[in-house]
Amino acid sequence: MCSKENPDTHNVCQFCGARLKPFILPGAEAIRPPSDRSSPAAGPSPSASAPAESPADDWLTRLRAQDENRPQADSSRPPTAPFAQPAPLDTDFLRARLGDSAPPSAPTPPQEAALESQAEELPDWLKSFRQPEAEEPAPAAQIPDWLEQPQEAAPEPQADALPDWLQSFGAPAASAAPEPSTGGWPSAPTPPPEAAALPDWLNTSSRPEPAAPAAPVESAPIEQSDAPLGDWLNSLKPTGAPPPPPPPQTGSLTFESSGSDMDYLGSAGASQPAGGASTERPAWLAALRPTGLDTPAAAPAPLPAAPFVSTAPEQSAPSAFFADDLPDWLQTSGAAMGAKAQADRMATPPSAASAPSPTQPNALPQYGSTEPSQWLAALRTPGLGAAQFDHDREESAGPLTGMRGVLTAESVISLVGKPGASVVRFVVTDQQSKQAEVFRTILSEETTTEAAAARAGRRFRFTYPVDRLLVALALFAVALAPYFFPALASPTLLPPPSALSPALQGFVTTLGNLPVDKPVLVAFEYDPASAGELNPGVQATLTQLMRAGVRVAAISTRPAGVGVAQEALDEAAAETGAADRYGEAFINLGYLPGGIIGLQQFAAAPQQSILFDYRQTGSPWARPWLNGVNSVRDFSLVVVAAASAESAQAWLEQVQPSTGVPLAAIASAAAEPLLYPYYQSNPPQLSGLVSGWAEAAAYDNATGRAALLAGRDPALALRWPSYALGLLASGLIIAIGAVVSTALILSERRPARRDTPLPPKAPPVVGLVRRGPQKPEAASKPAAKPKKK
Amino acid sequence: MTPELAGSSIAFLLTVLVFSYLLGDNPLYRLVLHVFVGVSAGYAATVAIQSVLLPRLGRLAATVPGLLGGDPVPFVFDLVPVVLGVLILLKVSPTTAPYGNAAMGFMVGVGAAAAVGGAVSGTLFPQVRASWGGSIANAGGLQALEALGNTALMLLATVLVLMYFFYSGQPAAAGSGQRPPWLEPVAAAGQFFITVALAALYAGALAASLALFVERAAFLFQYLTIAAPQILAALGF
Prior knowledge:
The structure holds two protein chains of two kinds. By secondary structure, chain A is mainly α. Helices cover about 40% and strands about 5% of the residues of chain A. Chain A contains 35 helices and six strands. Chain A has a six-stranded parallel beta sheet, sandwiched between helices. In chain A, helix 23 packs antiparallel against helix 34 (about 720-755). Chain B has a domain at about 140-235. Chain B is about 80% helix and about 0% strand. A two-stranded antiparallel sheet of chain B has the order 1-2. The chains are: A mainly alpha, B mainly alpha. Chains A and B meet through helix 23, helix 26, helix 27, helix 29 and helix 30 of A and helix 2, helix 5, helix 6 and helix 8 of B.
């Protein structure tokens, strides 16, 4: 039901397919409620030509006549405005059916008049529906929302607009007339086919009305309804007050007589004034309530020993009617009557149960069949027979302790079978145990006050590295010892280096065979930081060259090396008496930018790389002795004074291969291991190599300069013994340090070796193991590999 | 006080402050370091401007008359380095830095090519040729035998060291890798040669450092014994 508007000509909703106009058989007009026939939108009523009007339903005929004489206010309403005005008459019969006595909202005066006239002509059983309206108007809120909604949304009482499910309320009401000639409807006791398709709760609302004429049995159910009530419910009845006046002739009486599933309504209605909303439990529900929970004052019956155990023997008789249709636990219920009604409803098809019969209460024993219903038998748990249920068994555990007749709880625990896994212990390897012990020790130390005090004292301990200061002081003392003790500078005690290495010999030979007419290029590839080591060798070389009359050109790829070069040139020139011959005997080309790229360019075109010399005296290539230098190969020798091997390698890689010019190097002792292979190559890439201060002194001594060793300068003369003692002291300190370090390592390893854990057993297994023949140790061992034969 | 004495005094003070590092890191030591860095940078900038920029700008200016006279080639050749230099100078500012990427890329690319080419022609080929026993052919008698022994030792050391850096292996239980069993002694021998090489480098570094230390110690001693009395005398003490 989509509740959408459809044209009047449609019989079926074009949106949801629901039928808009009731399916009325010929002659069914008489059974339509009066309100339906008052609708102008109903179209031509088939009742006009229907021969269904019989003298038996003259009251309906009068209603029709009255309806036809209704003022035109209703019928003259335009059909296009059926939803503009609410029509309380549409749901009036519904309210009456549902016991809602609330007056419709603002009925129009003609409608009220029509209602009053109808009320006068209504039969008694219909008046009984309206009687509570006058006595005790029920609040409108009792109407469910799903019923109020159509009341508001569908104000026009058009029978065609009513859905089928609403018409199902009206049709049985009309069929209350037990006139077989009213149309094609079946006989009154037989429910309409539509009712069979409806849910039970709808069927129950439409079913009792056909039983309305069954007045002879109206008093019997009242007495019978009291029987199934529990004591606790009976106790609610007022005892001291006079019995309440008999309830009005309500339909509840007919409900009781039906003996169907509406019994609980009848019993509820009998226990309270009619028309009031019953808030008490129905009988069938009350029957399921354990008797022990009732109020003791109202129910002095003894408390049952266990639930579901009948304590009222007199109630066991009705239970025999359905003893086989109910489960065993229900059979033992003391409130059997309410359960009986429930069982009847479950065991009996609705069609069969809806047939009212005056003798139905007497026919109840026919249900006492020993064979259960098939549908109920299908629901029974296989294997759960009555023989397995012990009524006398007393529960000994759980919340139901002490109760009898409780269903046996079969859990997994009580099953007999293989025992489950049990925890033996944690399997922990020795290493893990040791680690845990260490961790425990750490935690204990953290909480120990002594440890905290020790840490506090340690915090203020002087942590200066004394060893570093001692080493420095020792070296200072050794280095200055020759100055304080000249005896240590004796050549007999510390003989100066006289033997020349092959590389140094090659250097001496190379410089001794240089032509005078070609200049020598000296590259200063070191900073002032390395001047203390390299300057002696460079000074000896420059002095030898200048003395030999070889012109020297200095260059540097380091900005700081330019100044070092100039200082070395000045000293050598001053020593050789050529201090004023700058530009003639020697020259400083200055800084060569570009790194290795600048070296390549300088090797190919030196005049393009160096535009001015260091002193900015003009282009150095304008000098006569440099005028013919167009490439590096025009120099007779390139001497590279480098503090690092990389600086010398740059010249070896970028200049020497492309020009083939001989190269010699004056390198730091640290670069000697990396530059020596260049000297050993074939042909040698380095013509000679002077490495370190010692070889520089040896070279100086070999050239006859003897500036460093001959004692011409006392300060320089003491440099060698100081250097030699420093080397000895360094070696001694290293040896002592190695011994001490070894001793410390051994002392640390010795206790640690005692605690050395066992070889790790891979993979360690930590977890739960089963109690059984398998040993925990075996679980941690890896699977043994089969030996290969 | 002569300039030499003033210079010696400054050198002495700076040397003492550097040696103060023996007592730990201190602000005086850091002050000297900053002074050295600043002086080195200033000196390098001065040298670059004096020896590189000014001469090249002067040569560019010298080619302007040729440009005006109809010979633009020298000017263009000299202008290219200037333009590239200006583009690299734009790297100073983040906003203009992208303009210097081309010049920087050109410089890096050319430098890498020059380095690779020089290493191949200046180190790799000559050293490989020397390892193949070129010196043996040029020697005779015992020298040839000695050269053969040296060559064999060098070849063996090279192979062993290369085998030491063979890191492939099977995973061990502790999670680390384990070399094949036959490779263990080979790697140990390679490790021995590596240790010898590092020891030689360390010995050279120690000798160089000791030479510098001796030179500074001698300077301090000479200053205290020679220059300091002169200064005190000059100051009236």
